[in-house]
Specification:
Length: 185
């Protein structure tokens, strides 16, 4: 029994070391827009360690231990930021849709949304409140942050802040609650 625990501990330690090993990438750009000024650089190279840009230069800065991504036929630019998104909202009736299905299904639907946005170039999103009583959007963020899934950086709020009866009010009146229960049962 003790041997199994020690073996499991060693395996967990090795697994965490592999997960935290520093990934090094060199991106060769046909053209590079940095957004720091109005210049467009040609034949530039971006060196990235883990998820941080560490250097920009020419091909001479590429080191042998870097994985090379050749985008020399493309223009590379910084990722886009969307500061007002709701990845869990779908359909026209968002004030009721959050009550349909489980929080787990909302999380899966939301994960698909944020992954689509990442593929479209949105590397950072800010959620301005979302439609899930169990905070599925924070679970999506956490799963991305620990590396379970690819996705953008996610920041944001829990639930909406709204006046009673406003666009983000998902607290129904007692009469509406009774009607909803009658429809479901």
């Amino acid at each position: 029994m003790m041997k199994n625990r020690i073996l499991l501990s060693v395996l967990m330690l090795l697994f965490s070391l592999v997960l935290h090993a520093q990934e090094k990438t060199a991106i060769i750009c046909g053209k590079l827009i940095t957004a720091e000024d109005d210049k467009v650089f040609t034949n530039a190279v971006i060196l990235i360690e883990e998820d941080r840009i560490v250097e920009i230069g020419n091909r001479a800065i590429i080191k042998p231990d870097y994985k090379v991504i050749d985008l020399s036929e493309y223009t590379v630019m910084p990722g886009l930021i969307d500061a007002h998104v709701h990845p869990l909202i779908y359909g026209d009736d968002y004030q009721v849709n959050h009550l349909k299905g489980s929080s787990a299904f909302n999380a899966l639907r939301g994960l698909k949304s944020v992954q689509n946005w990442l593929n479209e170039g949105w590397t950072t999103i800010r959620i301005a409140g979302d439609a899930d009583t169990q905070y599925a959007h924070f679970e999506i963020r956490d799963a991305i942050n620990i590396g379970l899934f690819d996705g953008p950086r996610i920041y944001g709020a829990g639930h909406y802040l709204s006046v009673t009866g406003g666009g983000g009010d998902i607290n129904f009146s007692p009469r509406t609650n009774r009607l909803l229960l009658m429809v479901w049962w």
